Amino acid sequence: AAQQAFSAALERASNNSQVLWYAAALALPADAAAGEAYLRQIDPPTPAGDYLLATLDGLPPNAPQSQVAALVGIALTQLEEWELALRALEIAAQLDPNNAVAWAFLGYAQSVLGLPALDSLDRAASLEPDSALPLYFKGVYLRQKEHYELAIDYFLKALDLDPGNTGIMLETAKTLADKGDYLSAEAWYRAIAESDPNSVEYQQQLTEFFVTHSYKIAEKGLPEAERLAELVPNNAHALDLLGWAKFQTGDFNGAEESLRLAAELDPNNVAIRYHLGKTLKALRKNVDAQKEFQHALDWDTTGAYRKKLAISN
């Protein structure tokens, strides 16, 4: 039904890149040629369209439709198009019931969408007992359900099969932090960061852990935020973390300096505006603080900062 609706829309707006892309995403899992034809009509090219074309280009000649559906489904998870990914992976699993990777990613998409996922993940694990992927996704699913101890067990089992996988290590660290075991979480985040001292991503994860949990801020959080700002000196998020770390140590003037720089780089960032407002309020610059809070309220699409401001007021 959805594909028919897009086909009708295409007749009315055949040059609409967004309509063409969605029509392609709907068609590809069942009809690779039709889906590719839609993608090649997109003009000018779009990043999402090029990503799906690159996925198709990576397939061997005369690849079976089941393989196309699976790889397109995985690509759609990377694009966070979860409903489309779910449909593609369901088709992939139907076309090839023995494709463990398709079942694993199907379970992952189901978990993100809040659907039952354990049957798909168990099916994947039974098909490939030596694969870390189903165990990793099961850990992610259990973490979402706040079954932290079970989630950690599955992450550790996945690491036994894929030692040194930083993605699994990061999920383990996040889960330990979720359950309040900050000491163990710190050790995991530290090990990840030390595995590649020049990695901005790993340094950011370590810094976010300290700053967002208000954990060992003066002792470790602020120095890590300073290191991150050195690695990426003109990065709004790094400056936001640095400013918020300074705020938590009582250095309100230093916090204002860092947060104003962050706001110049990313003026519509709700978190930065909220942190700057809190800092200005601490400095008794109440009029300016209220302006920043209003910016945060105007741009807060999730309602998270509206709740924070309601609590603080």
What does this structure look like?
The protein is an all-alpha fold. The chain folds into 3 domains: 1-117, Serine Threonine Protein Phosphatase 5, Tetratricopeptide repeat (Alpha Horseshoe), CATH 1.25.40; 130-189, Tetratricopeptide repeat domain (Serine Threonine Protein Phosphatase 5, Tetratricopeptide repeat, Alpha Horseshoe); 196-313, Tetratricopeptide repeat domain (Serine Threonine Protein Phosphatase 5, Tetratricopeptide repeat, Alpha Horseshoe), CATH 1.25.40. Helices cover 76% and strands 0% of the residues. The chain has helices at 2-12, 17-27, 32-40, 47-57, 65-78, 82-95, 100-112, 118-127, 133-144, 148-161, 166-178, 182-195, 200-212, 217-231, 236-248, 252-265, 270-282, 286-299, 304-312. The longest helix is centred in the last third of the chain and has 15 residues, at 217-231. 42% of the residues are buried.
Which short descriptors sum up this protein?
Serine Threonine Protein Phosphatase 5, Tetratricopeptide repeat; 313 residues; 19 helices; mainly alpha; single chain; 3 domains
- The percent of residues in helical segments reads over 70%
How far apart lie the N and C ends?
A: 49 Å
From the coordinates shown, what is the CATH architecture of the largest domain?
Alpha Horseshoe
Beta-strand fraction estimate:
under 5%
Q: What class would the helix/strand composition place it in?
A: mainly alpha
CATH topology of the largest domain: Serine Threonine Protein Phosphatase 5, Tetratricopeptide repeat
Largest sheet: none
Number of strands: 0
So what's the overall shape? globular
Counting copies of identical and different chains, the oligomeric state is single chain
- What's the order of the H and E elements? HHHHHHHHHHHHHHHHHHH
